[in-house]
Design brief:
Blueprint: H1 2-20, E1 23-27, H2 35-46, E2 53-56, H3 59-79, H4 107-113, H5 119-123, E3 128-135, E4 140-145, H6 152-162, E5 172-174, E6 177-181, H7 190-195, E7 200-204, H8 220-237, E8 249-250, E9 253-258, H9 269-272, H10 277-295
Parallel strand pairs: 1-2, 1-7, 2-3, 7-9
Antiparallel strand pairs: 3-4, 3-6, 5-6, 8-9
Length: 299
């Protein structure tokens, strides 16, 4: 009888522990490389991971919205059907370097992307869905979410801000200030996930933290391209570039990192902003393989 009571207490204890667990998933920015996160999510879903908090930066904002709308199915549908060239759809008589404050317009992009997203559903979701933004007017990085906005229209606006690349597209005016993509100031907000009480955090990087060795610097193009690649890796990964969280509990949370194991075609702007199903499917497959290899068996 005593043994039965002991086992019963252990079962209740494990159940209480699971109830206290809070899982956060951080979707890093990285433009068309964001397809890698779809494969990673596929593996996490198979492993039984159910997020409570989603945090998105740049392309990660779109992925967070897609997941909150319809889960892995909607993410996959978007990435395996969305197709665009970064220049042609953005040509506009008003939004250009001569008449406005950007090179291109984002109007076409907003319409195409939002065909896959239900902002009213996200507003009332059990998931907390947060976006990293840059307030150009105040010069600060901020987070807004489906917990800070009162209407789905405002939530749509802050989501749009989250992936509006400054200079390339015009900043968005919201509540008296001008805003844009927050990925350049806070691309992996680990601190925010910790502040929200997350006990398990998955950082889904689509820009790896290391580069392949290069020895050929015979012309200025190679020098500048390499420097740009290094800058992109460090800016995109924030303060976690050199840190290894493997088998470590950090400030009360178990940290998992899933990142590309290969270079994934470099960081040229045109390449990053070129979306097509063939490339996306390749990155999705790689994301699944990387997650399976890097995470292993979750306990």
């Amino acid at each position: 009888m005593a043994e039965v009571k002991r086992k019963s207490r252990e079962v209740r204890k494990r159940g209480a522990s699971r109830e206290k667990e809070k899982t956060a998933i951080i979707f890093q920015g990285g433009a068309s490389r964001g397809a890698h996160q779809v494969g990673a999510m596929k593996y996490l879903e198979e492993a039984g991971v159910k997020p409570d908090i989603l945090i998105g930066s740049s392309i990660g904002v779109i992925n967070a919205c897609l997941y909150a709308t319809g889960g892995l199915e909607t993410m996959t549908e978007f990435w395996t059907s969305f197709h665009t060239h970064p220049l042609v759809p953005g040509l506009n008589l008003r939004d250009n370097i001569f008449m406005g404050n950007s090179l291109l317009s984002m109007n076409w992009g907003f319409r195409q992307i939002e065909k896959y997203i239900d902002f009213e559903k996200i507003l009332h979701s059990r998931l907390e869905v947060s976006f990293i933004l840059t307030n150009l007017s105040k010069g600060t990085g901020e987070l807004r979410s489906n917990r800070t906005e009162k209407t789905w229209e405002d939530l749509r606006t802050v989501a749009r801000i989250g992936y509006t690349i400054p200079g390339l597209y015009p900043p968005v005016k919201f509540r008296g200030d001008y805003w844009c993509d927050g990925g350049f100031v806070w691309n992996v907000p680990l601190e925010y996930a910790l502040q929200k009480g997350a006990t398990r955090i998955f950082m889904l990087l689509c820009v790896g933290r290391s580069l392949p060795k290069q020895d050929n610097f015979g012309n200025i193009y190679r020098v500048l391209t390499r420097f740009y690649d290094i800058m992109w890796v460090h800016v995109s990964s924030g303060g976690i570039v050199q840190r290894d969280f493997a088998d470590e509990v950090y400030q009360g949370a178990k940290i998992h990192i899933i990142e590309p194991s290969t270079y994934m075609n470099g960081f040229g702007m045109l390449n990053l902003l070129m979306f097509n199903p063939k490339k996306a499917k390749k990155f999705i497959e790689q994301g699944y393989r990387d997650a399976r290899h890097q995470i292993g068996r979750l306990t």
